[in-house]
Amino acid sequence: MVTIENLTFDYRRSQKKLFDDFSLSIEKGKVYGLLGKNGVGKSTLLYLMTGLLMPQNGKISFNQSNVAKRLPCTLQDMYIVPEEFDLPSMPLRKYVKCNESFYPRFSLEDLEKYLQCFELNMDVNLGALSMGQKKKVYMSFALATNTSLLVMDEPTNGLDIPAKSQFRKFIALGMNEDKTIIISTHQVRDIDNLLEHVIIMDHSKVLLNEPIFNICQKLLFVETSSDKIAEDALFVSPSIQGNSTILPNTENEESAINLELLFNAMLSDTEKLKGVFNN
């Protein structure tokens, strides 16, 4: 669905290229998690992917169309929810009327359904909402556009604990085989049960680009107090139980993925972890 080829990009005041010969492919019909440290370019990549920024070199294609051309057929089939945004002070119904025509597959019925996930309805006035409530409304509208590509930058920031649980239900309700959702976040525990594919990036390098299924086939995530298990681990991090460990999954065992642990492991010893997947 999305192909990034030999991308080069930097901001004018920067002394270093943010992306230099960066390439990546995104498949259709999956929920992706985009992970990386602060400043590696996650948000910038989302803006480039949706045509809000233009690459200096290279090409980004969406359904085989060059995103930089900003063709109507491309823009009407993608939507971005940025980390920071504002909404006009008007009734939600008026906001919908002003914007729905830009998205041919927008569904008012879907919008009402997604709002219910957050215990909201169509009668709200955007100017009277808190920032957290505005985010819920904006994300609901974004999902109701039914675009093939939806990208979300730190969508759970500003949400309280119940709302984060509602968010997971909301994404699961709106996902289907025709949609691709990319979620960039540092709050990995908010989304770990949602993801089907994980991308870990570090500036111009893709450290990991694997389906969750493959990760759990190759790696075993274990909480243990055993020093012997820790000695055999690919990566160890202290925890309340003793140690959080990543082991080679040699016996095809099942374990719940620990995205935070995986992320730290990839940054700590990239080549060791890459070797597991290459083999």
The helix content, as a percent range, equals: 25-40%
Q: What fold name goes in the CATH topology slot of the largest domain?
A: Rossmann fold
- Which CATH architecture of the largest domain? 3-Layer(aba) Sandwich
The string of secondary-structure elements, in order, is EEEHEEHEHHHEHEEEHEHEEHH
Specify the CATH class of the largest domain.
Alpha Beta
Q: Return Rg in Å.
A: 20 Å
The CATH superfamily name of the largest domain is P-loop containing nucleotide triphosphate hydrolases
Largest beta-sheet characterization:
6 strands, mixed
Number of extended strands: 13
Mean pLDDT: 92
Residue stretches low in confidence (pLDDT < 50, at least 5 long) are none
Query: Helical element count?
Result: 10
Structural class: alpha/beta
Strand order of the largest sheet: 6-7-8-3-9-10
Shape: globular
Query: What number of domains?
Result: 2
Compose a concise summary of this entry.
With 279 residues, this protein is α/β, with parallel strands linked by helices. Helix content is 32%, strand content 27%.
Walkthrough of the structure:
The protein has 279 residues and is α/β, with parallel strands linked by helices. The chain folds into 2 domains: 2-203, P-loop containing nucleotide triphosphate hydrolases (Rossmann fold, 3-Layer(aba) Sandwich), CATH 3.40.50; 212-278, no CATH class. It has helices at 42-49, 72-75, 92-99, 108-117, 131-144, 161-174, 212-218, 227-231, 259-268, 270-278; strands at residues 2-9, 19-26, 31-35, 57-62, 65-66, 78-81, 149-153, 180-184, 197-202, 205-211, 219-224, 235-239, 242-248. Strands 6-7-8-3-9-10 form a 6-stranded mixed beta sheet, with helices on both faces. A 4-stranded antiparallel beta sheet has the order 2-1-4-5, with no helix packed on it. Strand 7, helix 6 and strand 8 form a beta-alpha-beta unit. Helix 4 runs antiparallel to helix 5 (131-144), helix 5 (131-144) runs parallel beside helix 6 and helix 9 (259-268) packs across helix 10 (270-278). The mean pLDDT is 92.
